[in-house]
Amino acid sequence: MRSVLKGRDFLTLMDFTREEIEYVIDVSLEFKMLYGVRAPHEYLRGRVIGLLFEKPSTRTRVSFMAAAAHLGAIPIQLNPNVMQVARGEPIKDTARVLDRYLDALVIRTFGQEIVEEYAEWMERPVINALTDLTHPMQGLADLMTIWEFKGRGRRIKIGYVGDIWNVCHSLMIISSIFGYEMYIARPKGYDADKRVLDFVDEMSRRSGANIVFTEDLEEAFKDADVVYANTWHSMGGPEAEKDKRLRDWAGYQANEEDTKVAKEDFIFMHCLPGYRGEEMTDAIIEGPHSVVFHQAENRMHTEKAVLALVVP
Ligand code: CP
Ligand code: NVA
Questions:
Q1: Closest Cα to atom 4, ligand 1: which residue?
Q2: Residues 183 and 290 both lie in one domain
């Protein structure tokens, strides 16, 4: 597949223009259609895609493997615990070696600087499958889902509740690029990363987006087109302070009662995995507004588009 994005790393959506992101979503929609009619789309026959995951994953791991397989590529899982990086081999050596074997490397890890270091030492594309800072693949699937259910080119209000971490950051980035309103409900003391805030401030000035932090759940959900929930205790650092977070975040929940102020036809989204009884209720995820499994499916279509567009 010819593409202007060939060879590009996919480390954060902050590196891409609005037009480039629209291009990825258009190709994702095309792939979804091809998949629906079981039409072959093997644009990467014979390529090898490495998957290095240092945190648990169901959706990202399996959807990338399926996407690679549909494209005719071979996905290989790299277990970091049995690689020499676990014994202290420098990333710059590991990266240059993997670059000789793979056509792309998909990484889930902790610091954003880790994916950046791999990218610095590899010629082949490096794709961020979640860091503490961002989750660009989730952001793409979220945007695709919003377009499918709420239309593109509209001003959308998102009422978000949950950890101010990778998923929230990527949704803030998307919202700022596409001129959305995003209200983030959270208890005092939980704030976004400065790198994301600086980007979002600058981008919002140009796009007319409005990104607001509030302690008031009702303000966040009022007239929302999209209610988005995410865990209170993400993998890594936040998970280690789970008990404190369960206390601090109590009540910051998407439930049937508190979402009554949202638009009548609002959609409920969640990146998953979700915790019923914490950031959301069983009734809302299983209810008529929920599109969470469409959203999860879209992970595969958007990742397929990214692979087809960036892998040389
Ligand atoms: N949403 C998401 O990235 O899920 P996994 O952690 O299962 O990959
Ligand atoms: N914010 C969550 C997302 C999981 C897909 C985490 O990092 O654990």
A1: 59
A2: yes
Residues 49-81, buried b or exposed e (16+ Cβ, 10 A)? bbbbbbbebebbbebbbbbbebbebebeebebe
Span 239-283, pLDDT tens digits? 899 999 999 999 999 999 999 999 999 999 999 999 999 999 999
User: Is residue 7 in some structural domain?
Assistant: no
Ligand 1 centroid distance, CA of 307 (Å): 18
Cα(128) to centroid of ligand 1, in Å? 12
Query: Residue 239: its pLDDT value, please?
Result: 86
Residue ranges of the chain with per-residue pLDDT less than 70? none
| Full domain range(s) for residue 69 | 13-134+298-310
Looking at residue 151, its amino acid is: G
The 10 Å Cβ neighbour count of residue 100 is 9
Residue nearest to atom 8 of ligand 2 (CA): 234
Protein residues with CB under 6 Å of any ligand 2 atom? 163, 165-167, 230-231, 234-235, 271
